[in-house]
Amino acid sequence: MYVRNRTERPAGLRPYVEQAFASSDVSIDFAGFSSETLHSALQEPVHKIRVGRLTPSSIKIRILVPDMAVPHAAPVRREDGSDDPRLRRRMHDMMVGFTRSITNSIHELSVLGLVAETNVSVWVHGGTQFFKLYVINQEDAFFEYYPIRPNKVVTEGEVIEIYDLVGADATLFHYSVNEGESSSGAQQVEQARMWFDSVWNTIGRDLDPDGK
Fold it and tell me: For the chain, which residues make up each domain, given as ranges?
């Protein structure tokens, strides 16, 4: 119970992301619905690299998001639970906006000569993403469920009531290898790495930013 209480606890993501960028080699694997929170968490460390306060040698980011060209369990129309291509196009556009911004800002660090090696890869898969996962520098994992809740959105000029995947108020849990090799936290990190690689290396494929 002592290990469980220490490793399975609500956590703030941003301090750990910034700490990761203090390392020489930075790696972030992210699986989620749109990468909006990753985009937000990267703003401060990218700024600190630009002003010389952080100096990593390499940055590698892998982003895994659902393919909005195919129907998903959510988001769907609230009235009958049916798929609506307009909702998927809306999510696709959001996803492309955030991932393109991440890719450009990280690549720019290399162009400016601030980081020797940078790489951002964005892949999609055909499954509904019911949770958000980060694996940072292969040492820390953050996990959060997406609850499905009623929501109202405007897309293509129409207000639509939907069942949506909402992560704003969900709890983010932190697991770390620093708890010890046989700890629950270390095992969670290992399983997170294994899950991410298994999807990336099998059913994952490049995101087509112009696909609908």
Answer: 2-206
The backbone torsions φ and ψ at residue 191, rounded to the nearest 5 degrees and listed phi first, read -65, -35
The encoded tokens of residue 189 equal 């990190």
- What pLDDT score was predicted for residue 12? 81
Closest CA to 142 of 170, 161, 182: 170
The confidence score (pLDDT) of residue 6 equals 39
Q: Helix or strand or coil: residue 27?
A: strand
pTM of the model: 0.90
Q: Is the previous residue joined to 75 through a cis bond, with omega within 30 degrees of 0?
A: yes
How far CA 133 is from CA of 9, 28, 29, 69, 79, in Å, comes to 15, 10, 8, 22, 30
11 phi and psi, to 5 degrees? -145, 155
Sign of the Cα pseudo-torsion (78, 87, 66, 27, in order): negative
Give the residue, 33 or 210, on which the prediction is more confident.
33
Residue of 26, 63, 75 lying closest to 48 (CA atoms): 26
**Which CATH number does 2-206 carry?**
3.30.870
